[in-house]
Amino acid sequence: MPRFLTGVPVLRCSLEIGMEWMILMSGGMDLMNDKYRIIGPLYDIVARIYSAGRIDKCKTAMHDHIKPDDYVLFAGVGQGTDAVAAAERGARVTVVDLSDSMLDIFAGRISGRHFLHPVETVHTDILKYEEYGKFDMVYANFFLNVFTRPMVLAVIEHLAKLAKPGGYVVIGDFALPSGGAVARAFQSLYWYIADIFFVFAARNAFHPVYDYQTMLKGHGSQIEKVRCFRFLFDDRFCSILARKG
Ligand SMILES: C[S@@+](CC[C@H](N)C(=O)[O-])C[C@H]1O[C@@H](n2cnc3c(N)ncnc32)[C@H](O)[C@@H]1O
User: Fold this and answer.
1) Residue range 153-179: mean pLDDT, rounded
2) Which of 23, 119, 170, 223 is deepest in the core (most CB within 10 A)?
3) What is the pLDDT of residue 70?
């Protein structure tokens, strides 16, 4: 491992302790806090600049699987350009988010727009949303990386339950580091820069890039397609299409 990354576990541990302390001091684990109130309005533009537009492409990479009248859920929708693109394809779109301010931005985005089906907006914690077996496609775009590993596993299991039998779960996120040592270290660094920013900006969890394909397979889902997006010489973001097992 390159010398400049040897301090990462210590840094991770200190940040996790610091974040848990901040959460406790700010009133416990109240999930209804709007952690995206400040960074939310800037989220998409920051992502666009940071990825030279690749994050936008990654979020809609599996949209050619959406058919008119399909039930499509966007968990942790944020500003929701991907959800709007799905509604434009004639899908019955539901968006769920915990952040009032993100949903306000999304509401502004669809205001005055007419789709084949009106978009349903739900303001809640995704784990409290229990329309099991309803959706043809369940999207988690750049959503799962906000959580600690045990939470990600719980949320993936929950998202799979929301999909119909034979339906899809789509995860768009940072690519798992791969290739030689330098390539892996660079992707880790690229991820940690974003992660540390969002640890402070939105109290996201501090962790390495998650291996979503293994997590999905662990729940019995089959990976049907993976599309990755290159930037700065390598794959930086991937969209994974998994069929519910
Ligand atoms: C990193 S942003 C990603 C937003 C969007 N999917 C995108 O790709 O731009 C994460 C979003 O998940 C929402 N979120 C975080 N925890 C949540 C939870 N437990 N239930 C629902 N939404 C949540 C946040 O409010 C935020 O809008």
Assistant:
1) 97
2) 170
3) 98
Query: Which ligand 1 atom lies nearest to the CA of residue 142?
Result: 8
Element (H, E) at 122: strand 120-123
How far apart CA 143 and CA 66 sit, in angstroms, is 20
Q: What is the best residue among 42, 96, 146, 147 to mutate for testing ligand 1's pocket, by most ligand atoms within 8 Å of CB?
A: 146
Pocket test for ligand 1, best of 50, 57, 97 (most atoms within 8 A of CB): 97
| Predicted structure pTM score | 0.88
Nearest Cα residue to 138 out of 75, 227, 85, 88: 75
Residues 6+ apart with CB under 8 A from 152: 144, 210, 215
CA distances, 193 to each of 60, 190, 209 (Å): 24, 5, 12
Amino acid at 106: F
- Residues 10-55: tens digit of each pLDDT: 444 444 434 443 443 343 333 447 999 999 899 999 999 999 999 9
Indicate the DSSP class of residue 165.
E
Ligand 1 environment, Cβ below 6 A: 31, 36, 43, 59, 76-79, 96-99, 102, 125-126, 141-143, 146
- Cα 98 to Cα 103: distance, rounded to the nearest angstrom: 8
Structural domains for the chain: 31-243 (3.40.50.150)
Asked if 155 and 228 touch (Cβ cutoff 8 Å), the reply is: no
Structure tokens that stand for 104 in this block: 């306000």
Nearest CA, atom 5, ligand 1: 78
How remote is the CA of residue 78 from the centroid of ligand 1, in Å? 5
